[in-house]
Design goal:
6-stranded antiparallel beta sheet; disordered C terminus; 8-stranded mixed barrel; extended; single chain; 829 residues; alpha+beta
């Protein structure tokens, strides 16, 4: 076959094949991807609506918990607060929180008090029919020690329900009953959810589903899904419907959510693919015709001429004849090479014999050189082997402790897991993190810290069995693999041994250390079957032990995954709260006992979440500490408190001091003095009206640096208060060095006054000690007149607590205390 025909045939075949592949790929893969993206989008819409419902349910649970842990409610349940219902079961309480049902039950499951309202008409009503199927003596909702939230089906529709145990405000007394709150899943709530998540959704009850065959089909299909979700495409190809089953607290289906998503991606994809194929075919045909013309003109004609000339030379054996050389391209170069080769052939015969002799000599020399190269190569290979062994050592073992590193440990664990799966044996992972090890590096340097790590690693090795594996992951983190254990409790015995090893005194140079550790435990196959899941779960359990105070071990539980996910959600919401300005300050007054007047307030941060309502600081402050967000939040609190105090002064009120809590991380990591100076300059508040409360732990972490920072603040005129005094480890010697104006006695000592002998002794001793050092004393947590009288009798300077007032908003603190602070004495004693 001629070259020209071959080229034509090849171009045709390539083009046809490429066109077929493009068509198949576009219709089967691109369309499939568009469908997948469309379904993913519909699933996300459905999940967002469901998550918004869950957040609404969680806000109801939080609100229920607040009412359950209210001291007034606890007193009412004890029969000591008969006006509790009249004072609190008011229409605004239901309307403002969108609550349709409030009930209190005693520990025997008997209804003590309750009311139900219709939030739409704003009238009280009877309990909705169907409620008795869920709330009755002995039901899970009123069962003591079992907090619960979920959904129930009533005659008025689906109701969110939450129940929590009733305890005192400090949760220190045993539960005496249950609180059950309900919130109807009304169209208004659903509209708010649709507006929040930007999704069009609807709710159908069982009777509506039964009357509609399409809804019935979707309901049955969703029940067969593991997650009770299903995406259905209608016949018109324009929209997708997503359905999700809502189940009551007993797991029974009571309704179904529907989301509607436009099929924009799918329709756009079809148009795009059609346009692309049309353009591709037109462009391909044009390009093929152009290529054929160029190949014919520039290549094929010249190759045919060259072929004819070469055949003629071969047939006539005319070595002196030359081919035609035209142009300056590859074909021209080929012609020149042919002519040059023909000239070489003419003289090649004469030089052949001489070349054979020369080649023989060259081969002899090459053999000698080859032997030298072989010797050199073996030497190089030996050096490479040595370097390779060294690199393997560096890649698999920790250079400080000579223990396996993370990479090598993961390789060993993967192999052991395969063996354990085949042999059906049990394993355990212990994730170890030394508590507060960073203080050793900061105080004595990394060289001392390295010696400590090396010694503690040697101790761990001696405590383990031969078949167990110990590795250093990084820094002060170690991991232990217990191989072939009979029972998971063996892991706890090893963990106790590790904690005991850390507690033994350790002498490095002239320093003696007593360490502690946090240990997380997970077992195979109960807690995971893969390398990643086991290490992750052990790490999660270790952090659980560390958050509990350290020097302990903790087994992994499945609830930790839920906590971790909730923690991630809360962290995201917390970051959003900073930018969305969701934080507010409440103020609790301080009473000066000598004058009976309010001389100061403490600023307390609250998080006004748009869905959850007021979130307790005990929930989000620890998370802010861990993530570092406390630095931004703390600076905002100081600025906001200073602005509020300056505003009160401008309004003509008697000047008072405002106290702000400084976190340990904020005190350690920020230039506090400069930041305070900038804020005071910005707000124009005089320094003597700002008081900073710092815990003992924060200032004792690095005493010299703490004294330097506190002195700088004191020189500015700012007051310094040691918060929660008596719970830390401040010594009297250091207390004399600190430039402190006030110490605040922790409420744990005030609680026992005046009946507890230990609390009275400690309180009077702290007051006497402070006064001897010319330091004022504030008692926090005062809740009874007896406590107030005791503190007044023993010369305490100021008091603060719920007996005086709970924390109030900016406007209420002005109305109730600051506005009247000049004219009236707040409390007589």
């Amino acid at each position: 076959m001629k070259l020209r025909k071959k080229v034509l045939l090849l171009i045709g075949l390539v083009w046809a094949g490429f066109l077929i592949i493009t068509y198949v790929a576009s219709h089967f893969f691109l369309i499939h991807n568009f469908l997948s993206l469309e379904n993913d989008r519909a699933n996300r819409d459905l999940d967002r609506v469901y998550q918004a419902l869950d957040q609404n349910s969680y806000s109801l649970y939080t609100y229920t918990a607040d009412w359950s842990h209210w001291t007034d409610a606890y007193q009412f349940m004890l029969g000591k607060n008969p006006h509790f219902v009249d004072n609190n079961f008011k229409m605004p309480a239901f309307i403002n929180s969108n609550i349709n049902l409030i009930t209190y039950w005693d520990k025997n499951g008997k209804l003590i008090a309750g009311k139900a309202i219709n939030t739409k008409t704003q009238k009280y009503t009877h309990y909705p029919k169907g409620l008795e199927q869920y709330i009755y003596p002995g039901s899970p909702l009123v069962k003591l020690h079992h907090d619960l939230r979920g959904y129930i089906l009533t005659a008025n529709g689906i109701m969110m329900i939450a129940s929590t145990t009733v305890t005192d405000g400090n949760k220190s007394k045993p539960p005496i009953g249950m609180t059950v709150f309900g919130r109807l899943l009304s169209p208004l709530i659903l509209q708010n959810i649709n507006r929040t998540v930007s999704v069009n959704s609807a709710l159908f009850l069982p009777e509506q589903i039964a009357k509609n065959s399409t809804l019935t089909k979707a309901f049955n299909a969703a029940l067969n899904q593991d997650n009770a979700h299903i995406i259905i495409s209608p016949d018109d190809q324009n929209t997708l419907h997503g359905y999700s089953i809502i189940k009551d607290i007993n797991g029974k289906p009571i309704g179904m959510l529907q989301t509607t998503t436009a099929r924009i991606l799918y329709m756009s994809g079809l148009k795009m693919i059609s346009y692309y194929l049309f353009c591709f075919i037109a462009l391909g045909i044009s390009f093929s015709l152009l290529m054929l013309w160029l190949l014919r003109t520039l290549v094929i004609k010249r190759l045919e001429s060259l072929d004819r000339t070469v055949q003629e030379i071969g047939q006539k054996n005319a070595l002196s004849q030359r081919v035609e050389e035209i142009g300056n391209d590859e074909i021209s170069s080929l012609s020149k090479q042919i002519n040059r080769m023909m000239g070489v052939i003419e003289i090649a015969q004469e030089k052949l014999e001489n070349r054979v002799k020369e080649r023989t000599q060259e081969l002899q020399k090459s053999n000698i050189q080859l032997q030298k190269e072989i010797v050199e190569r073996k030497s190089i290979e030996k050096d490479l082997t040595t370097h390779k062994e060294h690199l393997v050592q560096l890649a698999h073992y920790d250079s400080l402790t000579s223990l396996p590193n993370r990479i090598f440990f993961n390789e060993m664990l993967a192999k052991i897991l395969g063996h354990a799966g085949r042999k059906k044996i049990k394993l355990a992972l212990l994730y170890i993190d030394l508590d507060r090890f960073k203080t050793i590096n900061d105080a004595l340097g990394h060289s001392t810290g390295d010696l400590v790590l090396k010694e503690i690693a040697n101790r761990f090795v001696k405590a383990l069995r031969t078949g167990d594996v110990l590795a250093r992951l990084n820094g002060d983190e170690f991991i232990v693999l217990l191989n072939d254990i009979e029972h998971p409790k063996i892991a706890s015995m090893v963990a106790e041994k590790i904690l005991e090893i850390c507690a033994r005194p350790l002498q490095i140079n002239d320093h003696q250390f007593v360490l502690s550790a946090s240990v997380g435990i997970c077992t195979y196959p109960e807690d995971g079957t893969s390398l990643e899941s086991l290490v992750k779960n052990a790490d999660m359990a270790m952090y659980k032990a560390k958050r509990a105070g350290g020097n302990a071990f903790h087994y992994y539980t499945k609830e930790m995954d839920l906590e971790a996910r909730e923690r991630i959600k809360l962290e995201a919401a917390l970051r959003n709260a900073i930018s969305e300005r969701e934080f507010v300050l409440y103020y609790q007054p301080k009473l000066q006992l000598s004058s009976g007047k309010i001389t100061g307030v403490e600023a307390l941060i609250r998080w006004d979440h748009p869905l959850l309502g007021l979130v307790s600081p005990s929930t989000f402050i620890p998370l802010a500490e861990e993530t570092g967000l406390i630095l931004q939040i703390g600076e905002w609190v100081i600025r906001e408190a200073c602005q509020a105090n300056k505003a009160w002064q401008r309004e003509g009120y008697q000047p008072i001091s405002v106290a702000v809590n400084l976190s340990a991380k904020q005190f350690r990591h920020q230039n506090i003095a400069q930041m305070i100076s900038d804020i005071l300059s910005e707000t124009q508040l005089e320094p003597q009206y700002l008081e900073l409360e710092i815990t003992e732990t924060a200032i004792m972490d690095n005493i010299d640096l703490a004294i330097e920072k506190l002195t700088a603040l004191r020189n500015m005129g700012v007051k310094i208060t040691i918060d929660d005094f008596g719970t830390g480890y401040t010594s009297i010697g250091y207390l004399k060095q600190f430039p402190v104006s006030v110490i605040k006695i922790d409420q744990s000592f005030i609680k026992g006054l005046p009946t507890n002998h230990n609390d009275t002794s400690i309180t009077t001793a702290v007051i006497a000690l402070a006064h001897s050092l010319n330091i004022q004393v504030v008692a926090e947590g005062v809740e009874t007149p007896e406590q107030l009288q005791f503190l007044a009798d023993h010369d305490c300077d100021m008091v603060q607590g719920y007996y005086l007032s709970q924390p109030l908003s900016k406007s209420n603190i002005v109305l109730q205390f600051i506005k009247t602070a000049v004219e009236k004495q707040i409390i007589e004693y």
